[in-house]
Amino acid sequence: MNQLRNAFFLSFFTLLIPCCTTAQDNKFESEIQAFEAKDKQSPPPKNPILFTGSSSIRLWPDLQQYFPGKVVLNRGFGGSVLSDVRYFADRVILAYKPKQVIVYAGENDIASSKLSAQQTYENFVDLFQYVRKKLPKVPFVFIAIKLSPSRRQYWPVVNEANQLISQFLRKQRKATFVDIRPSMLGPDGQPVPALFKSDSLHMTDAGYQRWAPVLKPYLK
């Protein structure tokens, strides 16, 4: 009997361990907890236009000044991939009951995780379908994966992933693919160096100044 009881408890706690540790094991858990702590100290606006994704969102300085008259909220976390945004979607998207969702992610999937365009696309679809299931009437915007000079070798994969995502979103209701790539190119057809910081990856204010007017017509 004791052996049977011990086997039962061992099986029970073995099942519990993954569910209790998965969130803790995610490297972004502390950032998400910081958002939640900040929300308790200073409640976020109701029904905002919610921006989330990787560092191109996280590092966007003062979203509000770029979109006056709009209620916006930045919940980007740098270094994230699409599956991270999906993993934390309940806490960085759904928790805020947004009127619109804006996502920039996928660049790290390709350059850091070395995923193919198809794999990146599939991760995007997983995120989109989850958000759409939970927020069926909320408009969804995906910002095209940018062409970062420091990641030039990945441009073919980036362009293919963008094409797959764009084609998918064209078939969805209340879903938009916003292509910011042309706005970042100079007369020579190459990304303008001044739009990037010294790492040729993250953007300067000038880069965001190129993005804002492209995005603005799509904000609700």
Can you tell me about this structure?
The chain is of the alpha/beta class. It is built from ten helices and five strands; from the N terminus they run ααβααβααβααβαβα. The protein has helices spanning 2-25, 29-41, 55-58, 63-66, 82-87, 89-92, 107-111, 117-134, 155-169, 205-215, and strands at residues 49-53, 72-76, 100-104, 140-143, 175-178. It has a five-stranded parallel beta sheet. Helix 9 (155-169) links the parallel strand 4 (140-143) and strand 5. Helix 8 runs parallel beside helix 9 (155-169). The longest helix has 24 residues, at 2-25.
**Helical stretch count?**
10
Query: Average pLDDT value?
Result: 92
Instruction: Quote the beta fraction.
Output: 5-15%
- Approximate shape: globular
CATH architecture: 3-Layer(aba) Sandwich
Structural class: alpha/beta
Radius of gyration over alpha carbons? Answer: 19 Å
Distance between the termini: 64 Å
CATH class: Alpha Beta
Oligomer: single chain
Q: What is the CATH homology-level superfamily?
A: SGNH hydrolase
Number of strands: 5
Keywords: Signal
InterPro entries: Ester_Hydrolysis_Enzymes, SGNH_hydro, SGNH_hydro_sf
Domain SGNH hydrolase-type esterase: 61-210
GO molecular function: phosphatidylcholine lysophospholipase activity
